[in-house]
Write a structure and sequence with these properties.
Blueprint (H helix, E strand, L loop, with lengths): L6 H38 L3 E2 L10 E2 L3 H4 L31 E4 L11 E7 L2 E8 L6 H11 L3 E6 L3 H9 L3 E2 L8 E4 L5 H5 L6 E2 L6 H4 L1 H14 L10 E4 L3 H10 L4 E5 L9 E3 L11 E5 L6 E2 L2 E14 L2 E6 L3 E4 L15 H4 L3 H4 L16 E3 H10 L4 H17 L2 H11 L11 E9 L5 E7 L9 H17 L7 H17 L18 E3 L5 E3 L6 H15 L4 E5 L5 H7 L15 H38 L2 H16 L8 H21 L1 H12 L4 H6 L1 H9 L8
Parallel strand pairs: 6-7, 6-8, 8-9
Antiparallel strand pairs: 1-5, 2-5, 3-4, 4-5, 10-13, 11-12, 11-13, 14-15, 15-16, 15-17, 15-19, 16-23, 17-18, 19-20, 21-22
Helix pairs in contact: 4-14
Length: 715
């Protein structure tokens, strides 16, 4: 096949010729305007003008060009002078051609006196009064560089349009993922390849390894491990078992304690698959679930159960820096709370506080007032606590303690993964992340961690969502230290480093080391006294100090909880950082192996017992079928039929009924548009399978077929 004769090749040639023609026309237009633009730019680029161009007074000096164009002579005052303005239709001076800029007197950059000069344009000379350009201080240059740098953000992997709008209002440029972005905002965990290919000036809104606390099963494993290491400090979550590994322990606890248990999928979200039970014997030994003791006495407001969505920003994991947003959401259940019983355990609108569950209930309250509604702000909860004489500051101190301990349970993994993925990120932190902590409060005002969301919802369906989430995104983008990284300088350094590595240059190579977590490393000298490792300031320490200074001055409505503002709490949290020296997270101990063996043996015993029970039931049913006469079986059938007649359906909300009617109408229209009834009726008529009921139900169709019409194509 000859490609030159193909339509594809011809189309490519047409597009190429069109591009060439467009480039040629653009060059011609630039060529026509180039003398004027070049003359004005040469004149005005010498110094900064005092007033805008429109307000300048342009005076025409008459005379021959040979006399007035000399830069060493002023025009003679005895010559006649005519002052008139060359203006176009818009009132601005009209410039035609140009020769250049001629200063009237010597320019002194240290002087504040104005500088006068001439612009020669097509045998006409104009006087311009300007001020000399001054040298600015390095601090002012740095401030201008930070404020004038326009960063780019990629939100193509996010489904929330609000993030793009807020970023654009803050001065960010929206780009695609293939461009050189400064921030990548994604709703899901990115792959490792993306982390590896990131530049030193780029940031992403997820930390590698944060799944350790964002999946229910991994969060339970980490918190249980920390509870064994620190039994008096980590009572911050309900008693939890991971099934089927902890099936034996859960069954043993259920036999000795009469409690209600809540069961969740190990990786579920939005309240899907959650149910309550007080009998764990109904569970299968191989089901993958998270089993927790149900907190049967929660704190109630107006008789409703609620939980708190607390937004936490992590800007660094080494060193660990946590910020909590002062505003958040309180999600309420839509049915008034009653302690769980076998009769109301199925009422999810009473026991669950998830918005995705309760929004389907007809009792969901949409209220713009802060003191009502099924979704309220944390400030409204604080006001309610104040009115009821609760200590609000102590309560939020306990909430901050729960958040810090939850993040510290996975801190070794976060630190290891960060340094493995970003060994050379020495200018700014490569990641930041907003986490949504779900906190449940009991009647004693003690907070419990329920789960952690790595990508909390930023939908703004209600007014309270807009009042909370919009400032949250704005303050987050302001707090992150993206502007501290000079994109052009970093790219020049990287290109220079690559070039030196390829050419194997023996010159000085810019070394990059890891970010130093502390301000300085202290080592003992020969005399035994501690000294700094390096007397000269470390560049990584300088960048870390810049980041800390930037965050402290741009917190907005955030508050810093780690490092804690109270110096006495630093030593308390310091002991949790030493967990890696005690036992590895992934290491198997003798106790864990023994527990797994016991759980496996118990599962086998339960499976054998259930198999024997099923065999016995099957044998009994066969015997009954053989012994029971026909009249007894008929009587049993009639009894079951009467039970079905007396059965009453459950409550159906108005929203569910509207949805059912909508789908029913869509089904009817689809049958009508696709002519499914006519097609089936015609097929039955051709095969001779029409019954009397079909003929009486659709008499018109039967009449058309008798007359020989095609009903499948008729309207």
């Amino acid at each position: 096949m000859n490609l030159k004769n193909s339509k594809f090749y011809k189309r490519i040639q047409e597009l190429r010729n069109f591009s060439k023609e467009k480039i040629r026309k653009d060059r011609e237009q630039r060529g026509l305007r180039s003398p004027v633009i070049r003359g004005v730019e040469m004149a005005l680029s010498e110094s900064k003008c005092v007033a805008p161009v429109i307000e300048l007074e342009w005076s025409q000096l008459a005379g021959p060009l040979q006399e007035v164009c000399s830069p060493r002579r002023r025009p003679s005052p005895s010559k006649p002078k005519q002052s008139k303005k060359k203006s176009n239709a818009s009132g601005e001076p009209r410039l035609r051609g140009g020769q250049g800029f001629h200063p009237v007197k010597t320019i002194d950059l240290n002087s504040d006196a104005p500088v006068e000069g001439y612009i020669d344009l097509n045998n006409l000379r104009f006087r311009v009064a300007c001020t000399p350009r001054k040298e600015t201080s390095p601090l002012r240059d740095e401030a201008l560089r930070v404020s004038d740098s326009k960063s780019a953000i990629c939100v193509s992997n996010s489904r929330y349009a609000m993030i793009g709008r807020i970023s654009k209002s803050l001065g960010y440029k929206l780009v695609k993922e293939s461009k050189l972005w400064n921030i990548l905002w994604s709703d899901s965990f990115p792959g490792v390849e993306l982390f590896k290919n990131m530049k030193r000036f780029q940031q992403i809104n997820h930390f590698p390894g944060m799944i350790e606390i964002c999946r229910k099963d991994l969060l339970s494993r980490n918190l249980n491990r920390m509870l064994k290491l620190y039994p008096h400090d980590y009572k911050i979550f309900p008693k939890t078992w991971m099934l089927p590994a902890d099936y034996g322990d859960a069954m043993h606890y259920a036999q000795n304690h009469k409690r209600t248990f809540i069961l969740k999928p190990d990786s579920g979200a939005q309240g899907r698959g959650i149910w309550l039970t007080n009998d764990l014997k109904t569970l299968g030994p191989n089901e993958r679930l998270i089993c927790q003791t149900y907190i049967h006495r929660p704190l109630l407001i107006d008789g409703y159960k609620f939980d708190l969505r607390v937004y936490t920003l992590i800007t660094s994991v080494d060193p660990l820096r946590l910020y909590v947003y002062n505003e958040g959401l309180a999600r309420f259940a839509t049915n008034k709370y009653v302690e769980p019983t076998p009769g109301n355990a199925h009422d999810l609108y009473m026991h669950l506080t998830n918005y995705s569950v309760n929004k389907r209930n007809s009792q969901y309250d949409l209220c713009d007032n802060d003191d009502c509604g099924s979704k309220r702000k944390l400030s409204a909860i604080n006001n309610w606590m104040t009115r009821h004489n609760y200590d609000v500051s102590e309560f939020w101190s306990n909430v901050d303690d729960v958040i810090i301990k939850t993040v510290l349970s996975a801190w070794p993994v976060l630190k290891h993964n960060y340094h493995a993925c970003f060994p050379g990120h020495d200018t700014i932190q490569a990641c930041f992340e907003i986490l949504g902590f779900d906190i449940l409060v009991d009647w004693k005002l003690k907070p419990y961690i329920l789960e952690v969301n790595h990508s909390p919802s930023f939908h703004t369906n209600e007014q309270v969502d807009r009042e909370v989430k919009r400032p949250l995104i704005r303050d987050t983008l302001t707090l992150v230290s993206t502007v501290l990284a000079d994109k052009r300088q970093i790219m020049r350094e990287d290109r220079k480093r690559v070039k030196q590595r390829l050419l194997k240059s023996k010159g000085d190579i810019v070394q990059r080391s890891r970010v130093v977590p502390a301000a300085s490393k202290v080592l003992p000298n020969k005399e035994g006294s501690p000294t700094n490792k390096e007397q000269s300031p470390d560049p990584e320490v300088g960048s870390l100090a810049q980041q800390i200074a930037w965050e402290e001055s741009h917190m907005g409505n955030f508050r810093r909880i780690m490092p804690p503002p109270d110096a006495s709490r630093i030593n308390y949290y310091g002991k949790f950082f030493g967990q890696t020296n005690l036992v590895s997270i992934f290491q198997e101990t003798a106790a864990s192996k023994k527990r797994e063996d016991l759980a496996r043996k118990m599962r086998l015993q339960i499976e054998e017992k259930k198999a024997k029970q099923e065999q016995m039931l099957n044998a009994r049913s066969k015997r009954k079928r053989l012994i029971q006469p026909r009249l007894a079986r008929e009587k049993h059938r009639l009894t079951l039929f009467r039970l079905k007649e007396n059965w009453s359906p459950g409550y159906v909300s108005e929203a569910e009924e509207r949805l059912r009617n909508t789908w029913q109408q869509m089904r009817t229209e689809a049958i009508k548009n696709q002519k499914i009834t006519e097609s089936i009726y015609s097929l039955l008529f051709q095969n001779g399978h029409l019954s009397n009921t079909d003929i009486t139900t659709f008499p018109n169709l039967y009449h058309y077929l008798q007359c020989g019409f095609d009903i499948t194509g008729a309207t």
